[in-house]
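[job 4471] stage=fold_predict status=RUNNING
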Amino acid sequence: MDKLAKEKMLVEIRDIIKCCDEANVTIDNFESAKELAPRQSDDFVWKVLEVARSDGNLVDWNYWLDLPKLTYQEATYLIHSIDPNDSEPFMPNYHVYKCRTSVINLKRKLNRLGILEGSPYYWAEWARKNWKEKLPPELHNLESSSGKQISPEPYNAPLEHWKMKVQAEAAIRWKEQRKQGCNPTPHSLKDELAKWCRDENVRTKSNINPTPEYLYRHVLSSKHWTPPTD
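[job 4471] inference complete, writing structure tokens
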């Protein structure tokens, strides 16, 4: 969309929102925005929602989706069609204020799950699987060009207590096997450590027992753990 077309669209959208404000009509979600512009395309309706919630402007999707990572707060706002730069305070933007409960609840949920940061591709995939409402098309259609699964693990986060337990047990087993003349590797330890987690009820922040592959990639890999020396 060129600059002239964008400005023309913004004028039209702001006129719609102004009429809503004067009539005390709130744009709560995509469906209510669609009622205001029933003959417009869905893409246009999403832009109405963005402008209503992002302080009169469009979400800068190019900027946010080009970042290597997004915090869970930023992802929460984008899922709600709110530009994170315009997300606080909720007032006097009434259209944002009306979805405040949803924003707060999603933040709390992600924080409890321990999902603090992730790539835009990760958040898009998470939202497609877990978000019950309609998603902005920029997120709904976003896919990783690599096709690889994106880990939800926080960037530069302190090591969780359960991981320290697993690594301590791995160090014990590593030393014992070396004394027996074996040549252990993280890959050879992953299955027995996953069984140990089940037996000892060691759980992740999501309250599940870690799988062997998860332990191998996110607890025992060279990025996360250095085996003890003989």
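[job 4471] summary: The chain has two domains: 3-140, 161-218.
[job 4471] exit 0
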